[in-house]
Amino acid sequence: MNAPLSRDYRTPCLEVRGRRFEWGARTFVMGVINVTPDSFSGDGTSGDVAAAVELARTMEAAGADMLDIGAESTRPNAEPIDAREELRRLMPSLEAVRSATELPLSVDTYRAHVAVEALGAGADLVNDVSGLRAEEAMAGVVAQAGVGLVAMHNQRGRPFHDVIGDIRAGFAETLQLAGEAGIDPGLVILDPGYGFGWRPEQNMEMLRRLPELHDLRLPLLVGVSRKSTIGFITGKPVDARLAGTASAVALAVAGGADIVRVHDVAEMLDAARVADAAVRANWRSE
Question: Which of 53, 158, 159, 223 is most exposed, with the fewest beta carbons within 10 Å of its own?
Answer without folding.
Answer: 159
